[in-house]
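Quick start: read one record
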Amino acid sequence: MAALPETQHTTAHAIVRWYESKPQEHRPHMGASIIGHPCARYVWLSWRWVKKAQFSGRVLRMFDTGKREESRLLEELRGIGAQVWDTDPNTGEQWRVSACDGHFGGSLDG
């Protein structure tokens, strides 16, 4: 049987392309998720912003899904009686971590 070509114009592809068409903001610091990367050269180059991070539409969609799920998870944890501190009482915003004069940082969420 002949192999069928992969479809090019599906709803899923259109959604991924839509995410890719949105402007991706530049973070003014190295994100906490990068620090554990197995390649030291990758970390070094990221630290010095040698190449702007570009995420695929699929990954951007996963990031968005994670953001949307945060409130659900908080509700579930509180629903089972867990104490959750999702905001910094000093700022009223999400907990943040920072080091190296702000060159490295991240937020504690999801």
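DSSP finds three helices and three strands in the chain.
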